[in-house]
Amino acid sequence: MKHHWIKGNLPLVAICYVCKEECDIEPGLTDWWCCWCQRCVHETCKSVLSEICDFGSFKLMIIPPGSLEVINRRRTMRRRLHLRSVITPNWPKWNPIIVVGNRKSGNNDGDKILSLFRRLLNPAQVVDLAERDPVAALEWCRLLGKTPCTVLVAGGDGTISWLLNTIDKLGLQPVPSVAIIPLGTGNDLSRVLGWGKEHDKHMDPVEVLQKIRAAQEVKLDRWSVKIEPNRGLGFRGTHRTLFMYNYISVGVDAQVTLNFHRTRESRFYLFSHRIFNKLLYLCFGTQQVVERECKDLDQSLEVYLDDQKVELPSIESVVVLNIPSWAAGVDLWKMGTEDEGHVNAQDISDGKLEVVALYSSFHMAQLQIGLSKPHRIGQAKSVKIKLLRACAMQVDGEPWYQHPCEFSITHCNQASMLKNNTDN
Q1: Which DSSP letter does residue 263 get?
Q2: How far apart are CA 119 and CA 165, in angstroms?
Q3: What is the pLDDT of residue 264?
Q4: How many helices and strands (H and E) does the chain possess?
Q5: What is the pTM of this model?
Q6: What CA–CA distance (Å, rounded) separates 204 from 100?
Q7: Which has more confidence, 272 or 212?
Q8: Which site in 88, 208, 292, 416 is 20 to 30 Å from 200, CA atoms measured?
Q9: How far apart are CA 396 and CA 17, in angstroms?
Q10: Is pLDDT of 164 > 80?
């Protein structure tokens, strides 16, 4: 395939591939760059360079345009191109990357991030979840057949869980590995996997792709949460099955998250920013110090670890952990272990859950700044909780108000993730 040359609009500090001198130093649209291999050349140097494009350093991540087979479909008065198949290029170790994100995420930084990757990759590889759902986005993986691929998701913990659930639901083989650009508020899974607590405002997509290329594939336990409502006074609730990757909690921390989400979904919520969101969390946490809506939760809760009932102190929340990060980076299971001697280590792929309890909203604040430690209940391969009164719950940061029920958490399978081992 020949170079696809574009005149002007070169990257900052562009260097000519031929003479190694700086390009685009004169006013106007001068010099050229290839949108596939990203090489820049002077007008006078262009003829020296070979006409054939090798797709540059990220060749094995790009889906070349010649590999796309499309068909025309007419909808009303408009014609639209639809992707029918992907022809595998004869490139050893080809592992294309699919970038998935929502342009409205991350204080609307998602739009900028998607644009950066459209410039570097085939624009068709970059999917906006504001326009297409995850099933449509992951259609790429099905069309690639037996070719392994990587999915780079730009979003928060909720978006990541949504995508991982879709991958499992579609039964994709081979299972795509997932890397993360954190655009949420807490970004707990991103922290654990080394992708950082937040995205860089001046993010370089080249650097991100280099990190993905060097990343280590790891497994992440996927847990099934089956909720069976209590039936009383003729009430028949709806059975639900959810999937959990980070943590599930019932009590005061879920109540704070629920209050925040209700505010964020309000039509009066006009200002979205990560710092502002954290201030809202602080306000709602302070509110629970006074109101204590989850007071004496231990009297309305029964916890079973591997079918063994455990005794609870006076608490306001129970947290079931799969990863060593809760509420924007707090490692609950590890806190205070230096004073208690040996505590079994936590691992994201060991098929075990860690269960802790929180005493109050004020206790949550102390944990955030490292001035206290949680009440460690134990580790288990399965957890069952009987909720005897209505209370707030959350799974991976997605809260709701739950009526009395019994929910069981059991191991389902594992998701394939990429862990960044380089310094952020």
Answers
A1: H
A2: 29
A3: 65
A4: 10, 21
A5: 0.87
A6: 17
A7: 212
A8: 416
A9: 47
A10: yes
**Alpha helices (runs of H) in 157-273, residue ranges in sequence order:** 157-170, 188-192, 205-214, 252-264
Do 394 and 253 form a contact (C-beta atoms < 8 A)?
yes
Tokens of 323: 């990863």
CATH number of the domain at 1-54, please?
3.30.60.20
Of 189-203, 225-239, 273-287, give the range with the top mean pLDDT.
189-203
Share of the chain residues as helix, strand and coil, in percent rounded to the nearest 5: 25, 30, 40
- Does domain 223-412 bear CATH number 2.60.200.40? yes
For residue 368, the model assigns a pLDDT of 83
Helices 252-264 and 361-368: angle between axes, nearest 10 degrees = 80
Q: Where are the domains positioned within the chain?
A: 1-54, 59-214, 223-412
What integer is the mean pLDDT of 344-368? 90
Cis? peptide before 404, omega within 30° of 0:
no
Extract long-range pairs of 368-372: CB within 8 Å, 24+ residues apart.
Answer: 368/327, 368/328, 368/330, 370/335, 372/335
Give residue-wise pLDDT tens across range 168-214.
999 988 999 999 999 887 889 999 999 998 888 888 899 999 999 99
Instruction: Single out the residue of 6, 57, 60, 45 nearest to residue 29, CA to CA.
Output: 6
Host H or E run for residue 400:
strand 398-402
Q: Which residues contact 237 (CB under 8 A, 6 or more apart)?
A: 228, 229, 230, 231, 403, 405
If you classify domain 59-214 with CATH, what class do you get?
Answer: alpha beta
